[in-house]
Amino acid sequence: MVKVGLQLYTVREAMERDFEGTLRKVAGLGYQGVEFAGFYGRTPEQVKAILEETGLVALGAHTSYGRLLHALDEEIAFNKAIGNRYLIFPYLEEKDRERWEEVIEDMKRIGQKCVDAGMVLFYHNHEFELTEELDGQPVLEAIFAKIPPELIQMELDSCWVSYAGFDPLEYISRYSGRLLLLHLKDMVIKTDGTAETVELGQGEVAIKDVADAAISAGVEWLVVEQDHCAGDALESIKTSMDWVRDYGNQGGRINV
């Protein structure tokens, strides 16, 4: 059965103030795993200890392009020590988007090193990989056409697919079998056309349909994320977990 995790970027300010205490609160809300976005100066031993205490699973770690490129051995060692096998390419700066072919070759090399170490490399999208093109197709599609599945898997951010004007259900179906992680995120479109992420069920994304499709496609983890919270982030993730529980109670094939 699919599991539910939290991308810790959502509660980054709380993590900065109280790393261990925040993870205890996340576990107390019912999240089964966490996706790291930095370790706030903790050692692998400290991270592993709080995971063991709370019962949280390290489901993945967003790791910058620079770290993947220049400090991969260190990142692999750290993540292995905390029990995480999934390294996730989280974002590409604008200066690097002018050389997609080189970036893709870097991804292949990083992916192979991950395979050799018993790890898995993922790519996490925003909207620009769908609005920008490479070889006459959205960059996201080009990445996964040019790199074989054994070297890179997909973490689809369904919210940003929607914001870019594409159908997340179509992408979920297309990459079934290569899509182990999915960011479950809701948003509203403001009057200036920009997106504001909100708690699950509070926005415009058909998140129930997205969750249904992702589970049918065999995802391992639905990962709740809210890029920016208008109020207290811990209250926001509680509201989103309330939606998840309600979804599960209506037959959503999750158990939290």
UniProtKB/TrEMBL annotation:
Residue intervals of the Xylose isomerase-like TIM barrel domain: 23-246
Domain of life of the source: Bacteria
GO MF annotation terms: isomerase activity
UniProt entry keywords in alphabetical sequence: Isomerase
A Pfam family: AP_endonuc_2
Keyword Signal: no
Cross-referenced InterPro entries: IolE/XylAMocC-like, Xyl_isomerase-like_sf, Xyl_isomerase-like_TIM-brl
Name of the molecule in the record: Sugar phosphate isomerase/epimerase
Annotated organism of origin: Paenibacillus faecis
Lineage: Bacteria, Bacillati, Bacillota, Bacilli, Bacillales
